[in-house]
Design goal:
Helix content is 47%, strand content 22%. It is an alpha+beta fold. It folds into 3 domains: 14-61, Translation initiation factor 3 (IF-3), N-terminal domain (Ubiquitin-like (UB roll)); 68-156, Translation initiation factor 3 (IF-3), C-terminal domain (Translation Initiation Factor IF3); 164-192. Helix 3 (79-94) links the parallel strand 3 (68-73) and strand 4 (98-104).
Length: 193
């Protein structure tokens, strides 16, 4: 038996152990029933369960869920549409999510997969500052897929997004609200000073 302060009491019969636990107002908890003789400890069982639940909750809060977002494009994509898709992929990567880029081929486009490959590699080159190619472009039937992974881990990306703004910028915005000047103009004038 182990006492409530953690000291070894020794081998004690059940009635004596229960009486000792009642004297200090705590519970007698069986720690390892398979041992010979079984090991028991005097402790506050409610507090023990609460602390175990808190540790489990904290472990869940620190977990990061990796999400793979998908963006689909075609070989005949126009420059503006390409830029829009690239911005979308960039947003996903900055939040810490992986991004699967799927190039869809239809009809005669399937005869020229190198066009799709060049577009995917161009996209990867443009995003090299924030992403790394996890899976290189690979043809699978009518589709060619590539997976991009962010350089920043998801937990770190979330902290960067939630980081507080500088106090000076907050003061400038408050001043701009009072004077009814757009905040961008106020920030620009502060930068000029």
């Amino acid at each position: 038996m182990i006492g409530y302060t953690g000291e070894q009491v020794g081998i004690v019969d059940i009635d004596t152990a229960l009486r000792m636990a009642d004297e200090v107002g705590l519970d007698l908890v069986e720690i390892s029933p398979d041992a010979q003789p079984p090991v028991c400890k005097v402790m506050d069982y409610g507090k023990y369960k609460y602390e175990a639940a808190q540790k489990a909750r904290e472990a869940r809060a620190n977990q990061t869920h990796i999400v793979v977002k998908e963006v689909r494009i075609r070989p005949k994509i126009e420059p503006h549409d390409y830029q829009t898709k690239k911005n979308q992929i960039e947003k996903f990567l900055k939040t810490g999510d992986k991004c699967k880029v799927t190039m869809q081929f239809r009809g005669r486009e399937q005869a020229r997969p190198e066009i799709g490959y060049r577009i995917l590699m161009k996209l990867a080159e443009e995003l090299v500052e924030i992403a790394v190619i996890e899976f290189a472009p690979k043809q699978e039937g009518r589709n060619m897929t590539m997976v991009l992974a962010p350089l920043v881990k998801k937990g770190q990306a979330a902290k960067a997004v939630k980081a507080p703004k500088s106090p000076k910028a907050e003061v400038v915005k408050e001043t701009a609200k009072q004077v009814e000047v757009p905040a961008e103009v106020a920030v620009a004038s502060e930068a000029a000073e």
